Amino acid sequence: MKLSSLIFQIQYKDAFELWDSAGSIARRMSDIWPNLSLQGGQPNQQILRGDGIQINTGLAQSTLTLTGIKSLDQHKNIRGAFEAWRDYLQLNQLLRLSARSTYVKEFASMREANAMLQNLKLGRWPQAKVFEQPMDSELNTIDMTFRFETVESFTTVRVKTDRLTFEADLDADFVDEPKIRKEKNRFVVDFDRGLLGTVDAAKLSIEDWLKGYTHVMRRDLDKVIGSNI
Questions:
Q1: CA 31, CA 196: separation in Å to the nearest integer?
Q2: Model's pTM, two decimal places?
Q3: For the chain, which residues make up each domain, given as ranges?
Q4: pLDDT in tens, 195-225
Q5: Positive or negative, the Cα torsion across 163, 66, 215, 61?
């Protein structure tokens, strides 16, 4: 399977320092990812985007989204983003810290994607027509979620099939086929893990936490879905 995206997120009490430090945060992020540009700015949020990256810095929540990466080994850059938020927003405690990685495998048809998920035998797919719906429709999909949680941490494993559709109307004066439609039939594994409650931002080692995230996923995922990625 192919790594599709990695999302790193922190939540905290309202950090009004954002109003004074937005420029400094953007400059620090641009030191890490030089291709960033400002996409939007509001009193409660700043959005930076670049090739394969989006950074949302908010009053109570900040998110880093990476796409087009080949591995989870992004520890140094994520640490840099976290330290920028921690320092300029003056974060002493976090209310939530999480990372979410998504893996996908594409198929020529939705039936093939569904068959891969069904072969994992995580649930029962009906053998006969139900709810007056056909069992072999190309629009059928499967979505299953396992959530493990305590007051201090959580892990969510989501396994599903889906179809992504892209449509565009181009200028007929420049292209022979102005209408474009592309579809992707996907088998998806989504792994979301994090800390809850009160997290000491000053003592937190983001690199160590991310290494632990990857280790736990690789160690235990096949115990849940019967296969590793």
A1: 30
A2: 0.90
A3: 2-225
A4: 999 999 999 999 999 999 999 999 999 999 9
A5: negative
